[in-house]
Request: fold
Amino acid sequence: MVDVERRLLTNALLDVSNQHFVLLSETCIPLFDFSFTHRYLMRSKYSFVETFDDPGPGVKGRYDPKLQSEITTNNGVAVVIVNETACYARSHELGKGVIVLDKHYIPTVLTIRAPHFIANRSLTWTMWKKDHKGHSATFS
Reply:
């Protein structure tokens, strides 16, 4: 999944008119309507990804940064994610069991490589449960 996310960002960067990118999971519920969210994102210089320890039920004690189901970023930060190699190589070494790669990779990269561009909050709500084995609950 990390490879897919990186390829999506790489291909999106080929079109210079793309300024912002949103990778959104089906497990996320937007906190605000589309018009408000779009306006807010276009005016912000920050990327929105949860990169903090959440003491909430079902989340505490997991690998920090918090699991990510949504990322909203601009083209400059997307370039950082696509060009990063050290965390990418290391994540594949550690990726068996301890972490859920598709949830940890981007928050970890941004925390290390671009901390000043992170808002440390998300624009969506996700329900985390221990019995989902590292994955958030799906809404239907």
